[in-house]
Amino acid sequence: MRDNYHDHLDAIGDDLVEMSRLVAVAVRQATTALVTANLQLAEAVIAGDEVVNELYHSVESQAYDLLARQQPVAGDLRVLVTSLRMVVDLERAGDYAVHLAKIARRRHPASAVPAELIDTIVAMGQTAERIANKAGRVIATRDIDLARELLGDDDAMDMLQRRLFTIMLGGGGDHGTEAAIDVTLAGRYYERLADHAVAVARRVTYLVTGEHRDEPALD
What we know:
Layout: H1 2-36, H2 39-70, H3 74-107, H4 118-141, H5 144-169, H6 176-209
Helix pairs in contact: 1-2, 1-3, 1-4, 2-3, 3-6, 4-5, 4-6, 5-6
């Protein structure tokens, strides 16, 4: 019975790692769709979110079942409660990748990103992908040092978002209100995606140490 119980705990961890991987793939594809007006990739990201949602429901179902049937205490209880919080962060991160893909789909066949902003958007996409992948490794290894690295990665994303707005406000090109709104939204989506992935690292830190870190409220 206890072996089966711990198999379910392991399965929850595996699902969370897989969600992180899928989010990383989705943000990479969404970024490519944004800068190249690739409608097929945008549609793939939007459709692929269903798999992330299925994993989300799987983790919730398994966690609540174990809470109800096994009445875990101490470390196992912390694992389950933390997993229920992490799965929400990862599901929301996946939603932001979908929002990016929807911008690309809406602007097709044109690119949603003006030429002078492509490098910054690509850098934001690469940073978000790296953060999502690293969040998965933190879940798998419970490596506190790796979790701390994510805070630095999040700072890099914030700098990129400021660069994006600086270029936009600098008037490097007049691409109209719609383009300005799309790029502003894209910058926000990248930043929020990264915040949710970093929140996962904070939760793993709590799981390992029992200490909470102050964190901003996330939507």
